[in-house]
Amino acid sequence: MNTQIVGTVEYIDIGTGTWAIATDTDEQYEIWQPAPEAILREGLKLSVTAKIRDDVMSIAAIGDVIEIEDFQIL
User: Fold this and answer.
1) Domain 2-73 CATH class label
2) Handedness of CA 25, 47, 43, 35 (dihedral sign)
């Protein structure tokens, strides 16, 4: 399932660490690796088109795991 997400990139220091997108509505999505290097910057505002990966498990368990298909830096 594809979804459109607008939010801010965060690095979450859980376990080995993970990258996430936090939205203005307090939703959090874990970015599935490999992710585009251009977006892995703390505090970066962006809009992404992403696929929710129901088939991927995460140790961080902070929210849905997403695979980024397209992005736009805001």
Assistant:
1) mainly beta
2) positive
